[in-house]
Design brief:
Layout: H1 2-24, H2 26-35, E1 42-53, E2 56-61, E3 64-70, E4 73-87, E5 94-111, E6 114-130, E7 138-154, E8 164-172, E9 191-199, H3 207-212, H4 214-217
Antiparallel strand pairs: 1-2, 1-3, 1-9, 2-4, 3-4, 4-5, 5-6, 6-7, 7-8, 8-9
Length: 218
């Protein structure tokens, strides 16, 4: 709980930093608004996810496509797929989950190498309970929303090269007991995600030309 409060504080602090930056660069922000849609700000990416907990293991992938709104904010939509395995230490029961669902996220960059991540997911879950001891397995399906927040590190997002590696650690603050991001005792577990973010339509022009056009691109 304390860790989640810390990440909520980090997210709020990022918003504050963005507001300060926006005030100090008001002229540039006005130019961004006038510039309209820029195809150079489109990006694609993907991540892998790993979750560990008490009797809990999960792995997943999440491709996405999005747009850099300005030099501080990225927004995207994507699709998540994950597999979850849980084991009950007190019985012979094992649980297996296959999860797929759409997602949307916003990343705030108070500085170019750190970001705050907020992501909404709506997951369709196929759940299988394996009882053992000759008892038939039980299979059912549920739909569960999740809201993930947390900090991340980017290897070099800036106005000249918006392709980079990243890693983040997220928590599901909705804490739904059926969430794929809780352990077998209903406790929220950290989700580690790492991936690569690829900027589109930036071409092969020189970095000096990119610098001259920084404001136009953002």
């Amino acid at each position: 709980m304390n860790m989640m409060k810390l990440y909520m504080s980090f997210f709020c602090l990022s918003l504050l930093c963005l507001n300060v930056n926006a005030q100090t660069e008001k002229k540039e922000e006005n130019e961004v608004i006038k510039g309209g849609f820029k195809k150079e700000n489109l990006f694609v990416g993907g991540n892998v996810a790993l979750g560990l907990g008490s009797g809990n293991f999960s792995v997943g992938v999440g491709p996405y496509i999005g747009y850099s709104i300005n030099k501080y904010i990225d927004a995207a939509v994507g699709l998540n797929y994950s597999y979850l395995s849980q084991r009950d230490y007190y019985t012979t029961q094992k649980n297996r989950q296959s999860v797929i669902g759409p997602s949307a996220f916003v990343r705030l960059y108070p500085v170019k190498f750190l970001f705050a991540h907020a992501q909404y997911e709506y997951n369709f879950i196929k759940y299988k309970q394996i009882y053992g001891n000759g008892i038939p397995d039980n299979v059912y399906k549920i739909n569960v929303p999740s809201f993930l927040i947390g900090p991340g590190f980017a290897s070099g997002r800036d106005a000249y090269s918006k392709s980079f590696y990243y890693i983040s650690v997220l928590f599901d603050v909705l804490k739904n007991k059926n969430s794929p991001y809780t352990d077998n005792l209903g406790r929220v577990t950290p989700i580690f995600r790492a991936g690569y973010h690829v900027a589109l339509f930036q071409g092969d022009g020189g970095r000096s030309s990119n610098r001259r056009n920084e404001r136009r691109r953002f």
